[in-house]
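Worked example 2:
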Amino acid sequence: MAVTLTVSQVRDALYQADRVAGGEPSLATTALLGRWFHEGLSFLVSRDSAAGLLGVLAAGPADLTSWKLTARARLYESVVGPRLTRSCALLRESASQVLVLWQAMQAAADWFAELAWHVQLEWRRGHQLPGVGGRRGVEQPVWQLLAECFESEVPVECELSDPAWSDTVRLVGIADWVCRPAGVDRWCVVEFKTGSTSPEADLGQACLYHLILGELSRRRGLALDTGGSLALIRFAPERHELLLTVEQLESVRGKLLALIGRLAGVSSGGAPGAAVSAAGAAGAVSGAQQRGGGVLSAAGGGTVVSSGAAARRNLKSSTDCGELGRRIVAAFREYGVLVTLDDEVVVGPSFIRFTLIPGLGTRVTAIEQRSAELQIRLGLGAEPFISRGRGRLVLDVQRPDRQVITFDEVRESLSGVRSSFGSTLVPVGVDFSGELICADLSKPEHCHFLVAGTTGSGKSEWLRMAIAGLMTRNTPETLRLLVIDPKRNAFHSLRNSPFLLQPLVFPDEQPVGEVLEQLCAEMEARYAMMNGADTIADAALQSGRRLPRIVCVCDEYRDLISRGRRERREIESKICRLGAKARAAGIHLILATQEASRDTIRGPLDTNLPARVGLKMGRDLESRMLLGVRGAEKLLGHGDLLFRDTQDPRRLQAPLLTEANRAEIFGG
């Protein structure tokens, strides 16, 4: 069975390799704004009706300038404006990023208008029709002809092989656009990126798509001239176009295939992420001519920040996955639910993931409602987890030989201080491919955390692991911890740590409201010192005075607000102030609660703590309150979690911080 890799996995390895090789860091927009950019570009090619953008353009004034202005106006009215209204509180401190986003979207709208304009001109010339085009006597409105040329969110894949590999590799991804002018055998795949990029990594990903295009062309019955040029189009925020010749693409093809083989585990060699960005490739890019052409751009953005280290272990389940898959299909069939399984089966540390394909006429809800029956029919120790995401339906079945991921296994990727300002990366968990996923406190969607989980879910262990991850990447000069411990034993090992801003806070001895008031005062003092700078890092560059980032960690938040109405109001008002303003001042909140009820997660918590970690919960209502979806009630406990920021929840396994790790890192 072929090993499956995603385009995003290869892309992340390319960009990580460039960072390791000393490339400039990317100045990407936040994940939220990146998603808006992609949604805006999807809106441009919408083919819903004549009332859509393409219909308005085709029916409007017959000049390119008007098409550009119309595309900009409709993009703002339908995409940007409504989202800014809904998220103004979250983006309060991101005005500069929002401006860059809008400038990039205007440039993209202009580019799309030009493309659509030239497509319709070719049609009019070819058919000598003033307002309609047609073939074989069938007339169509111009907007429909334009709509047929563009398609968004298109799955692409190919199968790669090499004599030195132990297995073939199935490479899958989703292209932002596919553009094929009607009646033309040449076409292009379009991927969008905002922000600055790495030339070497861009070249590597261009070569990556060059591999995929041949297979996609074959499936669509098209002839692809693989000897032709490709172009990278970047909006940063103005439009930049870079033409890449086949010679430049071939210069990195061998190294790219070697990287893919290592990532898939089908070849021997160095660690994943070996630099594809060789000096020769860099020279090839710098020598490319910047002029127009087809469109192929490196995909960018992501839900979370990958640490770049693969905590990879070639996990092999003792369960026969093929036999288990057949039993799953048979069990569904007993209840009249027809499904088939995709070839892709992923064996993670805690569960085995199958991709389900609904049969003809089978509703997705009918599949989701059979998880309890599936548990009984298969004799599983825990109810299977069925979820939707990125256009797929997946089924997670608990491994009978569940593996433990320890902190030591991912520690190598966390070791060392990343800069003179320390690191803002918080380890969240390991995904089913073995990659450690981190959140970035400096980003609005990750600046504050709300963590919830019942007894035995691993909530306190996750908090200690997150603290250890921060301490591993920082020094007391770049990071200080304010730790509130209602249980008095969750953070005992930290009692002598030099990272503590003040001694451990026990609510029975010191009112938490006073502690949070002091933190608010520190926040205001920092804003006064920053003198208009956007962040403490910018302020440090201006003044030369560096301030440590402060992370306030609190376990059992529910206990704090249950001590009296007055104390609750005081604590919630301080959380609201800090949640709304503290990020730019370098102050962050990580709050945990055992009970994710409506009474606990309301008002300031729900509004101002955007990043959510959901461990196992007792009821689906609690899962919906924290994450917006059911599912956390079916997790396996002991660090099995769902992580949500601005995108759909992602299932991860938290590394286990052992007693030995605590003694070493915490110093207690």
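The chain has 21 helices and 22 strands. The chain has three domains: 3-302, 321-398, 441-666.
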